[in-house]
Amino acid sequence: MRRMGFIEDERGISNVIGAALLVVAVVLGVGALMSAMQSMTDVPEVPRAQFDISDHPDSVTAANANGFIVRHLGGDRINYNDLLLVVYDSNGNKIYSKIVSDAASANEVTQDQVSGAPYDTNFFEGGEQIIAAASILDPNNDGTPDAGTYEIALYYKPTMSVLVDRNVMIS
Fold this sequence. Notes:
The chain is an alpha+beta fold. The protein contains 2 helices and 10 strands, in the order αβββββαβββββ.
């Protein structure tokens, strides 16, 4: 008597399982590669804020004078460690470049709230200002700040994007 049932030849199944495992391996490999590539392109977004740079009322030749003011007029708040203040003379030569938090530690700039108390001393926020000492306006390196036109730029250090760049007549 002949038995009815399944065929005992399983050769075709190994090909199907092998192909399925290969597809799973390729999908996992492509997923891992895309995840790695995505993490490498994580560039910080440039803050959106409005700034004004103006001459300080002090004469740069006065004792302990201030040179200029950078005002945050509104928008995103920015960590002082992420701000690079750069000053160029009228010939385009860089005469000063420093992270704002480091410049504050060196008493080259003062972080100031226009009115009231600062919101957070680690961040440059709307209504605050950075007051730069006249001593950084010394293109001749002779210890005497000079009046004249200076290009003053504020960069967002993580991307080196220009936040504000103005020519200011300092008197």
